[in-house]
Amino acid sequence: MLSYIIHINLTMQDKFIIFSLFLVLFCPFQVISLYQPFNEDMLGLIVFKSGLEDPKNKLSSWNEDDYSPCNWEGVKCDPSTNRVSSLVLDGFSLSGHIGKSLMKLQFLQILSLSRNNFTGKINHDLLVTLWNLKVVDLSENSLSGAIPDELFRQCWSLRVLSFAKNNLSGKIPESLSSCYSLASLNFSSNQLNGELHSGMWFLKELQSLDLSNNFLKGEIPEGVQNLYDLRELRLGRNFFTGRIPENIGNCLLLKMIDFGDNLLTDEIPESIQRLTSCTLLNLQVNFLNGSIPHWIGELNNLEILDLSSNRFSGSIPSGIGGLRSLQVLNLSTNNIFGSIPVSIKELKSLYVLDLSDNKLNGSIPLEIEGAISLLELKLQRNLLGGRIPVQIAKCSALKSLNLAHNNLIGSIPTSIANLTNLQYADLSWNKLSGTLPKKLTNLTHLSSFNVSYNHLQGELPIGGFFNTITPSFVHGNPLLCGSVVNHSCDRSYHPKPIVLNPNSNYSNSRTSLQNHHHKIMLSISVFIAIGAAVSIVVGVVAVTILNIHVRASVSHSGYPFGLSGGEDNSFSPEKDPKCGKFVMLNGDIVEFPNEVNNLLKEGNEIGRGGFGVVYCVVLRDQNFIAIKKLIGSSLTKSQEDFEREVQKLGNIKHQNLVALEGYYWNSSFQLIIYEYFSRGSLHKLLHDDDQRKIVFSWRARFKVILGIAKGLAYLHQMNIIHYNLKSTNVFIDTRDEPKIGDFGLVNLLPILDHCVLSSKIQSALGYTAPEFACRTVNITEKCDVYGFGILVLEIVSGKRPVEYMEDDVVVLCDMVRSSLEDEKVEQCIDEKLVGYFSPEEAIPMIKLGLVCASQVPSSRPDMADVVNILETIQCSSEGQQEEIQ
Ligand SMILES: *[C@@H]1O[C@H](CO)[C@@H](O)[C@H](O)[C@H]1NC(C)=O
Ligand SMILES: *[C@@H]1O[C@H](CO)[C@@H](O)[C@H](O)[C@H]1NC(C)=O
Ligand SMILES: *[C@@H]1O[C@H](CO)[C@@H](O)[C@H](O)[C@H]1NC(C)=O
């Protein structure tokens, strides 16, 4: 073999390797050791090198011409024996196998090959042959296969062993427990599986054990308390179940404990109280429960305390202020309630405070000012009320502030502009009011400042971040103005009032009012804006009732003019049947001249429908109210009946029903006064082109559906059938709360038959329950459930109940039903929601919509059941999200 090779043209190095191999393979040990330059160490290293890729030429100094390898890069020798004792090649970008040749280095004590690209298996003879090895670090390579059981047959010298960050699989060998000198063991970030055996706790010298980020499972075995010297225990990111070891507190020197991201249950063991040296306690993402121990404040060396994403309940113990060294406190996503303890002012080193996603109430304590090192403050998704404390400005290092989804009120303190390092702030979904402080423009690092869904008003600041702000930072603040929100500040803030004086403008109809200064201030610009923007709204009108100045002089005119108490309620203007009576249900009575007809002139009209025409007027105090002029008087009941029915409807109050505030009656026409909603109807929100830019989020849609269900359930409980549920009859207030309008009006009209109901009132295409077509079937409240089902599909899909395509008609309900059958129901969800909805909610929601829209009335659930179902859908999907986190 040899002679054959020598015939080929070989380099010097090749020859050397071949010669070496020849010696290794065929010569007895004595021969080689006597031959000095080719001592075993050199031989082993050269052969080792020959099997490697060395792209950075890091091993160029490894030259066979040297008489000894002791000066080679990464090699150290013991001066007394001149044998290689240490081989440290960390980060040399070497790749290849860790071959047998290294086993020639009989006197090796330290072998560190970390941060290379070694592949293949770990040789099971490594430690047996190199029985002097004290340190073995093969971390951050690409080693694979199992850790061989035989590896630890002879490992008594071993102090440090790390195979971290490789691709090792299989179980942790039981034989490991014989390496009783081990002080540090790190197998983290591999794919090790199986259970942890209790032999691990025989390693009495162990100071640091890191098995995190593997696939280990089962319970953590008893006995960890035997490791008196243990300082660091990391078992995080595995699949451990059961409890945290009860006696872990016996390891009194423990400084770092990481059990995070496992499946651990039960409470935090009492014994941890003794671990006063502890600096890190990470129990995040488990199923731990019970309260946060009151003694936690005694672990006064803690720097990081992370109990997030568990099931802890109870309140935050005030002793937490004792953690003077605390840098990170994360209690987010638990069931913690109560208020934030004022003792946080003691936490001078704290730079991350995350209490988000709990049920915390109370207000943000002004003692927050003590936490002067804070970089990140996360309190979102709680029930915090009160104001944002001005003192927050003292946390001058703050970079990130999240207070979203709380009930904060008051204005945004100008002092926030003192937080010069602020980069990110989310104040969305609160009840903040007032204007945005102009000084915010001084925050030069600001890249996100979200105040969506509050009650802010006035002009958006100009300058700094606000020059590049997009509408999605300020959504849901209808009173904010500025070019970004497409809302000119002049129009909304200083409506140009005009005085409608009946004396001059409406002189053709004489009334007793002529001698009184009766001024009605209306804003024409508002009329035009609203009139143009609102499409077919059936349900709500606004009227101005302004009479206040003339009340005193009413009596001499001979009419019961002005406001009065209860007695005047029954008065009817018999002297002039044309002159009607305006009644506010809160007790005030206002007479109206015939000019009411002029007030309800076309410019104010905002909609038309089965029950009549809808108008809108502004009151002098700039409030809007809405008025509906009922259809044909011939259908109308007597005044008495009418008033009785209206009073009844006025008593129906629910947060999801439009409030009826008053009425007007005369023999020729009748009016009903309602509260007015500036955002308009659900129909407008879903289908109006102008609204396209505005995000109608999944959360908001869910809220709207649930609200409609609650409103309807309440109506049905009061024995009122709506008959005419559709998206133009549902209004959305600024908090996304839906308000059902136009209910109960059927009772104001005399005898109606199915014919009238279906042709005049139930006119809305697509919402009409099939039983309306069948004269023999009794119409029950189940016709509303049908309409509700269609509404659900409309809200989820963003499509009209019936859409006319070029040469096709698409009936929403049929389309969704067949998508469900084809298992493609997700395609029905509004494309604007793609990526932003929760399928755990959306799919059951669609199914619910279809059940409600069943052809047979008896197959449709009651609205009360629907409310329960919706709440269950919401809960279970929230539960799932919790588990995912
Ligand atoms: C390691 O080696 C593999 C296979 O040879 C190669 O794909 C990979 O890029 C290498 N990684 C590094 C960090 O050198
Ligand atoms: C904010 O800064 C201004 C001027 O720099 C200072 O007068 C004011 O006291 C500061 N406010 C707070 C709460 O620190
Ligand atoms: C602001 O917050 C709202 C509500 O949470 C959210 O919908 C919107 O996307 C946020 N905007 C930005 C730019 O992050």
UniProtKB/TrEMBL annotation:
Q: Which UniProt keywords apply?
A: ATP-binding, Glycoprotein, Leucine-rich repeat, Membrane, Nucleotide-binding, Receptor, Repeat, Signal, Transmembrane, Transmembrane helix
Major place of residence: membrane
Start and end of every Protein kinase domain?
Answer: 600-873
Q: Name one GO cellular component term.
A: membrane
InterPro entries (UniProt xref): Kinase-like_dom_sf, Leu-rich_rpt, Leu-rich_rpt_typical-subtyp, LRR_dom_sf, LRR_N_plant-typ, Plant_LRR-RLKs, Prot_kinase_dom, Protein_kinase_ATP_BS
The residues that cross the membrane are 16-35, 520-546
Q: Which family does it belong to?
A: Belongs to the RLP family.
Q: Binding positions for ATP?
A: K629
Give the top-rank taxon of the lineage listed in the UniProt record for this protein: Eukaryota
Membrane topology qualifier = Single-pass type I membrane protein
What molecular function does GO assign, one term? receptor serine/threonine kinase binding
Localisation per UniProt entry: Membrane
Q: Quote the protein name from its UniProt record.
A: Protein kinase domain-containing protein
Keyword Repeat included in the entry's annotation: yes
